[in-house]
Amino acid sequence: MEEQLAQLVAKVAELEAARAIGNTIFSETFYFVTIPLMVLIHAGFLAYEMGASRSKNSLASGIKNILAFAFIVPAFYFVGWWTYWAFPNGIDLSEGPQKISGLAYATGAASPFGATMGPNLSDHATGVFYGAFAMFAATTASILSGSVIERIKLLGFVILAVFLGGFVWVLGAAWGWHADGWLVTKFGYHDFGAAGLVHSVAGFFALGVLINLGPRIGKFNKDGSANNIAGHSMPMTLIGLMLIIAGFWGFLMACIIVPGEVWSWSATEATTIYGTPMTISSVAFNVLMGFAGGIVGSWMVTRDPFWMMSGALGGIISAASGLDIWYPPMAFAIGFLGGSAMPYLAKFLEKCGIDDAVGAVTVHGFLGAWGVLAVGLFATGYPALPAENSIEISLIGQVIGMFVMAGLGFFPGYILSLILKVMGMLRVPEEVEVIGLDKVKVPSVAYPEAAIDTATPAQ
Amino acid sequence: MGAPFDGNWVDVKAAYFVSLGGGEIAWTIIAVGFCILALTVGSWHEKHAYEKVKK
Question: Is 0.80 topped by the overall pTM?
Fold first, then answer.
């Protein structure tokens, strides 16, 4: 009997160990898969941006986008990941209430010189989390990248992109996307899908840069009226937008904390990054509904395929902060309102003399802010954290968060781009802009057959 | 509008979405209403676009 009991205990222990390693490998794979899915976002931004450029600038736009991605990855490794864990409780690097933040914690868990930041058999999580966050970082840089096409200097752009992707948005994530974040613990800020801390921060950073960069030559007439500078390939732009949207499923998947690991919030349930319970199904419901609402809303007011696909993106961003809690028809309605407002907001910016080549400030900045505000309007009273008697989501908390994210984006973008402008590192010379950036500095040709006579003698 | 439960997450074991238990029909009407509005505006525009060509 005793022997049988011992065998049973050993068998249970064996099964438990197998379950644990199965869960660990599942968790590692879950986040690993989000990385190539999010690379689709960058494939999309690449196509979007190149298509929205005139053919004389298309490769230069592509180079800029690819290079931003490449510089963001090490910048996030060396600075960004540590910043996320160091700053949640404020800029004094102190430890937050959950004790998973501050100088000591960040240095132990996320220092580029530490044992967790490389191959390590006892750590199946840090690499894939770093990878997913690095892709969020690259997304912020891509948002900036599209808005400044056809006239920004490459070095100036890379400095701006690295600052935004490696540090600025990470501060927003530390403050509002972390259980120790002061916006969360003090104001109940809720931004599940990063509408504020990724999209709004990047969109308003782009606005700050655009003010100093100025419009493309020919964008505005002397009387202030605007001309449409059409990109060379609307189909490429539309496919790019669809790729971005496909990648968004990876982006939002990475916003979920899977259960059953030592770092999980729950042994049995998926949670948000704040630790509040949720299901992956809620994301499936609401992303699709927000996506559809954004398309329908923007189609209603423009009937333009560019704005319809931007509306799809805008619809998801509008619903993003509350994807874990929306009733799906609400996500549709919130996406619809965002999608239908978007073209008017873009016109307003244009009237203010801002030349945002791809509507990034509108789609990401304004609709990101709308997404944060929508949670305050419709979802007050939800506990913001899993603990009993936790602070609740409130309108005032969301409004404060909305302004913090907008300001966190705008002021660093404005100040750094002003410094670059004074140093002559921001804008390409006028004559280069007229000739086209590809001809001046790119050793390849985008469309070589279009440049020569390809007709055969028989023709 | 707001959370369909009081207190904390520990008590939540099933549906927890915004508007649960009263707002579903209203939000469904709003969402469908937006679809009908969009189709109405879209068809109006399409009709005028065709008429413009005829003229």
Answer: yes
Class of residue B40 by CB neighbours under 10 A (exposed 0-12, middle 13-18, buried 19+): exposed
Query: Residues A404, A176: contact at Cβ < 8 Å?
Result: yes
User: Rounded distance, CA A319 to CA A285, Å?
Assistant: 11
Q: Which residues in chain A have Cβ-Cβ distances shorter than 8 Å to B10?
A: 388
d(CA A392, CA A98): 17
The token pair that represents A94 in the structure block:
């102190």
In this prediction the ipTM stands at 0.94
Burial of residue A239, with CB atoms counted within 10 A of its CB: 0-12 exposed, 13-18 middle, 19 or more buried: middle
Residue in B5, B13, B16, B18 to test binding to A, most A beta-carbons within 10 Å: B18
A362 within 8 A of A355, measured Cβ to Cβ? no
Chain B residue numbers with beta carbons less than 8 Å from the beta carbon of A299 are 38, 42
Q: Give the model confidence (pLDDT) of A41-83 as tens digits.
A: 999 999 999 999 999 999 999 999 999 999 999 999 999 999 9
Of B3, B24, B41, the CB nearest to A300: B41
